[in-house]
Amino acid sequence: MVELTTTSFSETVTGGEVSEEGPEATSTHFFTPQNPSYAGDSKDSHLTGQVKYASSKLTFAWSVKLHTNHSAAATGPMNEVATATRNGKSIGYKDSHPGVPANYTVHSSFRVDTSHYVLSVDETFPIAGGVRKVHTSFDFTVTLV
Q1: Are 18 and 130 in contact (CB under 8 A)?
Q2: Please, which residues bridge with residue 69 across strands?
């Protein structure tokens, strides 16, 4: 089973002024070998996650796509960086997509075992007169039960 909690917030800097949209309430989803997929929406993006249980080496695959209200404001390419921790410590996982369109579906995967993980995805792109930053966090626990 995987318990997945999503958190999302964004920040816009225009003309030197910072406006932040704070974190939304979190939601939790449970994966099992019988129900290994998740798809849902935060206030900022569409999120998917899947655990591949088919072998002894479990894999967590994920994707994030910004909602149109964010991506349509982009005046240039987006840079994305994703990292993950296991039980609060870095696992050395880093994914980056520099210079992609803001409406691109960012996706990747990494090996997991029965532990607690946090996947953090940061997307930054120019908008008229400033910059928008969107942070999405996947907080999940993998078990075999």
Answers
A1: no
A2: none
Q: What would the pLDDT profile of 37-71 be if each residue is shown by its tens digit? A: 888 788 888 889 898 988 888 999 999 999 998 89
Pair of tokens at residue 28: 């939790």
CA distance 77 to 55: 38
Low-confidence ranges of the chain (pLDDT < 70): 1-31
The amino acid sitting at 145 is V
Find all residues with CB under 8 Å of 101, minimum gap 6, and list them: 71, 74, 77, 78
Q: What is the pLDDT of residues 29-39, one digit of tens each?
A: 666 777 788 88
71: left (phi over 0), alpha (psi -120 to 50) or beta: alpha
Q: For the chain, what are the domain ranges?
A: 2-142
CATH number of the domain located at residue range(s) 2-142 in this protein = 2.60.40
N-to-C CA span, the chain: 6
